[in-house]
């Protein structure tokens, strides 16, 4: 998987979903016609037509929650199943939504489905609007002409069916290793190591100023270091992204970067928590530098009525447009009433050939410098600087 930290921070959330990374292609032959049916089984065809959006990304095809295949751009999958009702799902990865269809399989019959998702200007990293849609055989056969089989082979006539396909190298995984998580809580509450047991926290040499930003349904309040300038402010229909770097630095060459992001309506998805969002972001770092990755959770608690996950992690050796560097990031994930938000503080340094050491005292101090990070209700008609959230 190819990842650059201009994508890590700029899209710590975008990076989760791996929309444009890699160049995976279907391994099978071009469509030559329907597979021969087998007694006692039914065939389910699932296909994805060519498109530029997420062109290099393959999606997990799941049957009753178990991965059965990868669905590539311009490809199709044949699932040979015994009669019954199944949950057919397509999961693009990361924090994108999973699309489901209830499929009734009958012996000696075929069913056809298309995984359809918005592309072009309507494309979105969470695949909102995507669906697994039933198709008539005539349309499906016309659509599949020119597509490649997403499996090594078609199901044979002797009953072997289709074996599950292993996850691709570099596919998104959750970071759940116990060694990578710690109970040290910088606020001295929940989960936690008591305040007096934390490393000594030196005073911050930086000057900070409070900043309140409206992001979707709420206001996000945090302290930002002085001397940083905005280099990006991107407010889309389903995501929000704002970046800051020190004066005289740029998006391509920076020593530190602050990133505020928002994901609209994700809080309504019960599959997600602040911990899972944090773990999926961390997993992208680990995939990019598996031999030099380090990570620690600093806190998982409810603070001022807001569910929050605070962690620090990084790569000892990471290739960027600016050269080979080390990179460490403080990540704060907040669950709002409707949306999720992240605040990140990334720092680059000299590359290391080993897992990057994490200076917990330094990063706990930086977390405190940012805080208290808060979410506030938006008040109709209220203008910047939003005194209700000061």
TrEMBL record:
Keywords on record: Signal
Signal peptide coordinates: 1-26
Region (Disordered): 173-198
Protein name per its UniProtKB record: DUF2846 domain-containing protein
């Amino acid at each position: 998987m190819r990842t650059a930290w201009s994508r890590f921070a700029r899209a710590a959330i975008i990076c989760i979903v791996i929309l444009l990374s890699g160049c995976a292609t279907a391994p099978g032959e071009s469509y030559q016609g329907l597979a021969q049916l087998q007694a006692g089984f039914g065939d389910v065809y699932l296909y994805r037509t060519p498109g530029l959006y997420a062109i290099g990304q393959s999606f997990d095809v799941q049957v009753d929650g178990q991965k059965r295949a990868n669905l590539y751009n311009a490809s199709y999958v044949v699932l040979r199943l015994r009669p019954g009702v199944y949950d057919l799902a397509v999961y693009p990865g990361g924090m994108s939504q999973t699309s489901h269809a209830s499929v009734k399989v009958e012996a000696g019959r075929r069913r056809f489905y298309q995984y359809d998702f918005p592309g072009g200007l309507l494309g979105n990293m969470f695949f909102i609007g995507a669906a697994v849609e039933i198709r008539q055989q005539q349309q499906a056969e016309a659509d599949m002409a020119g597509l490649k089989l997403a499996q090594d082979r078609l199901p044979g006539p002797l009953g072997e069916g289709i074996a599950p396909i292993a996850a691709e190298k570099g596919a998104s995984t959750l970071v759940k290793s116990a060694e990578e998580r710690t109970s040290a809580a910088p606020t001295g509450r929940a989960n936690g190591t008591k305040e007096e047991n934390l490393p000594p926290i030196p005073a911050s040499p930086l000057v900070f100023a409070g900043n309140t930003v409206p992001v979707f349904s709420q206001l996000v309040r945090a302290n930002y270091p002085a001397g940083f300038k905005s280099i990006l402010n991107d407010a889309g229909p389903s995501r929000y992204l704002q970046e800051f770097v020190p004066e005289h630095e740029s998006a391509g060459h920076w020593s530190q970067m602050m990133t505020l992001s928002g994901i609209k309506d994700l809080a309504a998805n019960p599959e997600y928590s602040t911990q899972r969002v944090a773990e999926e972001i961390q997993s992208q770092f680990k995939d990019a530098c598996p031999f030099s990755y380090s990570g620690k959770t600093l806190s998982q608690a409810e603070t001022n009525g807001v569910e929050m996950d605070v962690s620090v992690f990084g790569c000892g050796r990471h290739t960027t447009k600016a050269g080979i560097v080390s990179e460490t990031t403080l990540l704060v994930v907040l669950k709002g009433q409707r949306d999720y938000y992240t605040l990140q503080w990334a720092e680059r340094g000299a590359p290391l050939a080993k897992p990057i050491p994490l200076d917990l005292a330094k990063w706990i101090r930086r977390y405190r410098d940012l805080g208290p990070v808060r979410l506030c209700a938006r008040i109709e008609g209220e203008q910047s600087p939003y005194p209700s959230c000061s």
